[in-house]
Amino acid sequence: MSSAVIGRFAPTPSGFLHLGNVFCSLLAWLFAKSQGGKIVLRIEDLDPARCSVEKADRLAKDLAWLGLNWDEGAYVSKNHEDYFQSNRFSIYQKYFAQLEANENIYSCFCSRNELHAANAPHLSDGRFIYAGTCRNLSLAERQEKMQMRKPSYRLKVKDEDISFVDGIYGRMTYNLANESGDFIVRRSDGVYAYQLAVVIDDALMHVNQVVRGSDLLSSTAMQLYLYDLLELKVPSFTHIPLLVAPDGRRLAKRDEDMELDVLRKKLQAPEKIIGWLAFLAGQIHKYEPLKAEDLLHIFDPKKIPQANIIVPQELLNL
Ligand code: GLU
Fold first, then answer.
1. What's the farthest any 2 CA atoms get from each other in the chain?
2. Which mutation among 85, 202, 209, 216 tests ligand 1's pocket best, with the greatest number of atoms within 8 A of CB?
3. Cα(266)–Cα(185) distance, rounded to whole angstroms?
4. Whose CA is closest to 59, among 17, 14, 10?
5. What is the Cα–Cα distance from 114 to 61, expressed in whole angstroms?
């Protein structure tokens, strides 16, 4: 017997929802709900400098306005505070200690400038592949450096392939040595990294279906490596294409005209936003206003394109 599907929304309250976030949320909701599953809302507010409670409140209100309801988690569960990552540091600490005890991680003292000077830029997106500068420091060197600055902590990755079968992109294979190098699991200011927190939380919240943007495909390889080291249960992964502007540029938080707030003023009804997104996701042949729940009986994941999706000028020009 297969267990019930548990999907999730995992927004970061560092800004307001924009069309791209809503697209991911709608598809995560459709994947889970069309299979009779439920959705957990987890607020990914790890970084206190970028996130706020007001923004989290707003995200939740916006999701509810769109008709994308959730069954468990922030704002609805009895222990709803436990679904804010900012309240979960002691849990992350426990798993971090396990990685430390198993010598899977090491302290890194590289400054931002040193990182830029010494590390190879990642081919496609300007991120850096960590060259491993601090991997082999002696204990004495570490202790000396510790006097000078607080370290971040990096996970030692292996030079080997990590594969998984994505719900839309099929078999994906990454080698973390070429993709990221040893990556950070805790920042020098003590904030745990997304990669670590997301693995622990998805596992402890029994999430078994992760649906999110294809910009996180290579993160999935990092996360699978952590699942393995921490012996946690791995969910299924489905990455969805990104929404891009007609010039191919990814829609980002700075595209103010694609912010939900702006779209709400122009379109008024949530059905119009959902209708556009259903059309962009290949679920209907031409745009028409729809409720999210109207899509449940026609939802067909095979119709979601793999290529990034160009937002039509018609929608941009509203
Ligand atoms: N919090 C992440 C974001 O807002 C999503 C992470 C995930 O879905 O794994 O981009």
1. 66
2. 216
3. 41
4. 17
5. 42
Model pTM score: 0.94
84: phi then psi, degrees, rounded to nearest 5: -105, 120
Q: What is d(CA 110, CA 239) in angstroms, rounded to the nearest whole number?
A: 33
Question: CA-CA distance, 28 to 39, in Å (whole number)?
Answer: 8
Tens digits of pLDDT across the chain (318 residues): 457 999 999 999 998 888 999 999 999 999 999 999 999 999 999 999 999 999 999 999 999 999 999 999 999 999 999 999 999 999 999 999 999 999 999 999 998 877 777 776 665 666 789 999 999 999 999 999 999 999 999 999 999 999 999 999 999 999 999 999 999 999 999 999 999 999 999 999 999 999 999 999 999 999 999 999 999 999 999 999 999 888 877 776 666 667 888 788 887 899 999 999 999 999 999 999 999 999 999 999 999 999 999 988 777 766
Contacts of 161 (CB under 8 A, 6+ apart): 173, 174, 175
List residues bridging with 183 in a β-sheet. Answer: 155
Q: Give the closest residue (by CA) to ligand 1 atom 6.
A: 10
- Say how far residue 201 (Cα) sits from the centre of its chain: 12
C-alpha–C-alpha distance, residues 145 and 90, integer Å: 26
Whole-angstrom distance, CA of residue 203 vs CA of residue 39: 14
CA-nearest residue, atom 5 of ligand 1: 10
DSSP states along 274-290: HHHHHHHTTSSSS----
The residue written with tokens 């510790």 in the block is: 146
What is the rounded distance in angstroms from the CA atom of residue 311 to the CA atom of residue 295? 20
Q: Which residues contact 315 (CB under 8 A, 6 or more apart)?
A: 276
Instruction: Report residue 176 as tokens.
Output: 């973390």
Query: What is the number of other CB atoms lying within 10 angstroms of the CB of residue 176?
Result: 23
* Å from CA of 102 to ligand 1 middle: 28
